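TA notes, week 10

Several of you asked for a full example with nothing omitted. So below is the full record: structure tokens for the whole chain, then the designed sequence directly under it. When grading your own attempts, check the secondary structure regions first.
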């Protein structure tokens, strides 16, 4: 409809202009004739007046035609202008002007431009939504600034620094209070390569956060914006520290027996072999330290297998009393050598556990109690059920453990008394093995101790019902 209307308007406009031109020419010719007649004295006054009126009429009609022509030309242009302005608010609006004339072509071009802009805008919105979804799901905190204020902070960053969404529009240092962050951001803004650094965050749960910042370059020399990625490396740094301690501890644990074996061998080689009594002593030194090395290597390999979950557990319903009796029998020789007395109190309960792993746990705990339970240790082993858990307790009445040691008791190679532990033949890995095995059986292990009041280890494992026998 608009297209045909535009075409007919153009045709009428041409006719109107042609008529106006003809009338103007006719009026001009008639006026010239009247003037010539007046100069020649041939006409009368009335004829002259009529000529003037005709000319005036022709001019009026021509002016009216010009006004109409102007309106017919300007109205579509004004409509296009209004449509273009409305498109700023709604890109779905169209002029719907069509036709072969200039206005129709301009209308079609404007509609095509609006459709293209709407498509590009939708594409940008889709890209933005995808980017926000990616940023919100990241495991690292992401902060984006522009002109010195925050424009985006993802969920992980808000969680990391306990922030709310009101941080947008504020300077980053106003919302993230971390010593050293301002210096990293400043360096990144002045460098083409960005900057990085590590922050130490205090509070109830101290953390270490690695920050990497990259500039968002614009036309100016200085970066108008920054992208900062925050990665919580607390656990990584802890593991690195554990690894360093582990290497240092293994080196120390190996050095002592190796040095003793080497020294004894050199002494024997230097002539002690000719003295049977002395030779026997040095051979005993070699044997004892070789045994210690063997235990250490076996425990290391075992712990490695457990941590790597290469020890495949077979969980079944067990009578814990049977496993306790078996473990007591295993440590029987060591217990008799130290005049240790082990008593057992067992409830009529069943537990879900791996037989070999549970036996290993109890042997380690009983062996610890025998070694460190004081002179002639009195050791009590008990079993009871609490809710859906079975509690296995191993208690001694030895010297006890100070609080500062209890928190690290299950670490590899940690010893309350290193000298006494080595003299007793311990490797420092037993309790770490206990903890890993219990956790793999969906249980927990805790220690309760006070200096001078003995120590109690409690292992909690899933309980089983009497009719629940069978391997899973």
């Amino acid at each position: 409809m608009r297209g045909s209307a535009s075409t007919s308007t153009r045709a009428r406009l041409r006719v109107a202009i042609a008529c106006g031109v003809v009338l103007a020419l006719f009026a001009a010719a008639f006026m010239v004739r009247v003037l010539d007649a007046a100069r020649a004295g041939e006409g009368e006054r009335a004829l002259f007046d009529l000529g003037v009126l005709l000319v005036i009429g022709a001019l009026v009609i021509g002016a009216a035609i010009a006004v109409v022509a102007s309106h017919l030309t300007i109205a579509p242009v004004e409509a296009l202008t209004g449509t273009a302005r409305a498109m700023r608010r709604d890109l779905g609006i169209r002029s719907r002007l069509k036709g072969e004339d200039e206005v129709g072509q301009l209308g079609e071009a404007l509609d095509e431009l609006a459709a293209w802009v709407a498509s590009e805008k939708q594409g940008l919105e889709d890209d933005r939504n995808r980017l926000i979804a990616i940023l919100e799901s990241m495991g690292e905190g992401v902060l984006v600034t522009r002109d010195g204020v925050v424009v985006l902070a993802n969920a992980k960053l808000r969680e990391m620094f306990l922030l709310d969404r009101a941080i947008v529009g504020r300077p980053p240092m106003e919302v993230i209070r971390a010593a050293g962050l301002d210096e990293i951001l400043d360096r990144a803004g002045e460098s083409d390569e960005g900057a990085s650094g590590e922050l130490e965050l205090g509070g109830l749960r101290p953390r270490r956060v690695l920050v990497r910042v990259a500039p968002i370059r614009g036309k100016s020399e200085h970066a108008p914006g920054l992208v900062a990625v925050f990665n919580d490396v607390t656990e990584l740094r802890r593991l690195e520290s554990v690894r360093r301690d582990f290497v240092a501890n293994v080196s120390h644990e190996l050095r002592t027996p190796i040095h003793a074996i080497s020294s004894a061998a050199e002494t024997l080689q230097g002539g002690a072999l000719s003295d049977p009594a002395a030779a026997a002593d040095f051979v005993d030194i070699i044997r004892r330290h070789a045994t210690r090395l063997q235990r250490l290597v076996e425990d290391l390999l075992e712990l490695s297998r457990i941590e790597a979950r290469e020890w495949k557990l077979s969980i079944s319903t067990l009578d814990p009393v049977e496993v306790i009796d078996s473990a007591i029998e295993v440590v029987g020789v060591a217990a008799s050598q130290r005049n240790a007395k082990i008593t057992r109190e067992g409830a009529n309960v069943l537990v879900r556990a791996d037989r070999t792993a549970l036996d290993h746990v109890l042997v380690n705990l009983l062996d610890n109690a025998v070694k460190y339970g004081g002179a002639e240790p009195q050791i009590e082993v008990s079993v009871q059920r609490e809710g859906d858990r079975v509690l296995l307790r191993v208690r001694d009445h030895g010297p006890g453990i100070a609080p500062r040691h209890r928190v690290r008791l299950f670490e590899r190679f940690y010893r309350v008394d290193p000298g006494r532990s080595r003299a007793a033949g311990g490797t420092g890995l037993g309790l770490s093995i206990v903890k890993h095995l219990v956790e793999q059986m969906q249980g927990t292990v805790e220690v309760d101790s006070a200096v001078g009041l003995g120590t109690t280890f409690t292992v909690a494992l899933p309980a089983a019902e009497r009719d629940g026998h069978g391997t899973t």
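The longest strand covers residues 207-216. Use that as a sanity check on your answer.
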